[in-house]
Amino acid sequence: MHDICPIKRFDHLEFYVGNAKQAALFYADCFGFTNTAYRGLSTGSRDVTSYVMEQGEIRLVLSSALHPDHAIAQSGLKHGDSVAVIALEVPDAEKAFWETTSRGAREAIALTEEQDEQGVFRYAVIHVYGDMLVKFVERSQYQGFAPGFAMRQQAHQRVGAGLTAIDHVVANVEYGAMDRWVQFFTDTLGFELLMHFDDQAISTEYSALMSKVMRDRTGKIKLPINEPAYGKRKSQIDEFLEYHHGPGIQHIALATNNIIETVTQLKRSGVEFLQTPPTYYQNLASRVGALEEPIDQLAQLGILIDRDSEGYLLQIFTQPVQDRPTLFFEIIQRHGAQGFGEGNFKALFEAIEREQALRGNL
Fold first, then answer.
1. What are phi and psi of 191, to 5 degrees?
2. Burial (0-12, 13-18, 19+ Cβ within 10 Å), 330
């Protein structure tokens, strides 16, 4: 079928944060990212300061406002540190903007073209769930990151933590909104439904959620959407919506080719993960089959395992990366499997509920 909005890859994710300089140090020291570009007062930016952080094919942009009435500052008051922009590299930003807005997407920033000594940079932006934005970036005629950014020369290149790419980006929306946004991505960007998990698949004694996984036609861009389902107590989605004050990005899954080495390094650097009970690993081999990785090492690190018809995957989830119980990260290694760890949903949900109980939010 005709791809109405071709996408090359995730270009970057932009975080709105309270203190970009400190956030850059956190992602450098704890997650192994390298600061490759910067904008701020010294580069002529009078309103916003931003740090571009890279590792493998992953690019995060950490932005703070320099004035309290700026939209980024207002976002921080409402949401805390959060992902505000999903930037997608496209071959033609004008076409992507026209195709999506003509099919119902709401314009945030019309096609904009900026030029400097690095070339011509084109982009356009649309609204999606909550205060989130999707930015179409066309950089085929541009050499740097973006106009207004100065490249940073590092005295010592960071080794990194072995993170290679953005696997998927998960959003939480309010009850009853999931199907509306599934239809939105289908109609405006030509995405397709990859998987659907109902409240029977993702539930515990106390709470439940529903999820649908949307992806582009190439399968490179995967955007699962969660909504809460009825339960005896407050679900993790309800808790997120309460403290984020509306829909937004719940977690980002980052791929690695060696999850044991990556998680070992992240833990050594101070990254905190959800705890997996030892009982999870009892009879694991009979449940998931043969693995390349030693089960005792996976158990020691708390890494979860799941298998589908195409292979298996390994995954682990961090604690929220700020005091609000909102944004967290997933570290994932795929051995052929294309799923999202359905067999681990119950174990994951119970681990999150243990943390909710400690926060007094279950």
1. -70, 165
2. buried
Q: Please give the C-alpha separations between residue 12 and each of 55, 144, 166, 233, 357, in angstroms, as whole numbers.
A: 11, 14, 9, 36, 34
- Cα–Cα nearest to 86, from 134, 54, 137, 126: 134
Please, are residues 222 and 135 in contact by the beta-carbon 8 Å criterion? no
Cα 112–118–122 angle (5° rounding)? 15
Both tokens assigned to 282: 């009892």
| pLDDT given at position 199 | 59
Query: Token pair 């399968």 is at which residue?
Result: 219
Distance (Å, whole) CA 202 – CA 349: 8
- The two three-digit tokens of residue 149, written as one number: 């950014």
Angle of helix 93-102 relative to helix 178-189, nearest 10 degrees, comes to: 130
User: What pLDDT shows up at residue 173?
Assistant: 96
Name the band, by pLDDT with cuts 50, 70 and 90, for residue 157. low
Tokens of 231: 């339960």
C-alpha of 134 from chain center: 13
Q: CA-CA distance, 350 to 203, in Å (whole number)?
A: 9
Total residue count of the chain as it appears in this document: 362
Comparing C-alpha atoms, which of 204, 246, 250, 248 is closest to residue 229?
Answer: 204
Structure tokens at 113: 């073209």
